[in-house]
Amino acid sequence: MPADAPQSAADKTLSVLEALADHSRIADLAVATGLPKPTVHRILQTLVARGFARSDGHGEYVGGPRILSLAGRFLQRLDLAERVRPLLRELQEATGWTVHLALLSGDEAVYVAKVEGAKPYHLASRVGMSLRLHCTSIGKAILATMPDEEVRALLNRTGLPARTPHTVTDPDVLLKELAVVRRQGFAEDHEENEAGVRAVGAAVFDHAGQVIGGVSAAALVFHEEDAGARGEAVLRTAAAVSRALGG
């Protein structure tokens, strides 16, 4: 489209969505897109309402979970998931558990790949499903890479809703657990996100050393032994996935 051609509503919305990857404040988004601040604000409200953006309540915006939810569907056919699928499959074969890869999206994570376990049952997880950080092994592995004050700020935004009777809903208790995660390198979920399911997860990093998601292995409680026994295998796979994604 010529530079002086009028922009359609779709052009303006896509411009703001693209700029949101590098900018978080309305003023910066306006400069990056060349759009008036009121227009940017109006578009952001629509993106927030549709789940494509999220406001922190203090004038800053980040990408919303719907972006990765949609991306997760495409990633089943695109190269990122396929690039690491052999690594995920190796972990599944080594553990016998169901293996997931999830990527961070704002204050949540989204499953982008899943390899079913060897047992004759299927977990409810699916590609494109979003997951809370405070009650999942991948989520806690991600949180453990952050300073405590950043974790507290995130928890203030999201809360710690109880998914099951086992969910940790006290920030101080969760922070103590994250200190253990930092020492051992992997996190555990003991029926905290879904009753009857336990998991172990480790963080995945990009080329700049920034956390971008995590890998987990999960199984039904009454079929399997302690999740921690799978920790080192999950940690090795997460490191391999990080390298495959440029980490």
TrEMBL record:
MF term (GO), any: DNA-binding transcription factor activity
GO BP terms in the entry: negative regulation of DNA-templated transcription
Keywords on record: DNA-binding, Transcription, Transcription regulation
One Pfam family this sequence matches: HTH_IclR
SUPFAM superfamilies linked: GAF domain-like, Winged helix' DNA-binding domain
Protein name in the entry: Uncharacterized protein
Gene source species: Prauserella muralis
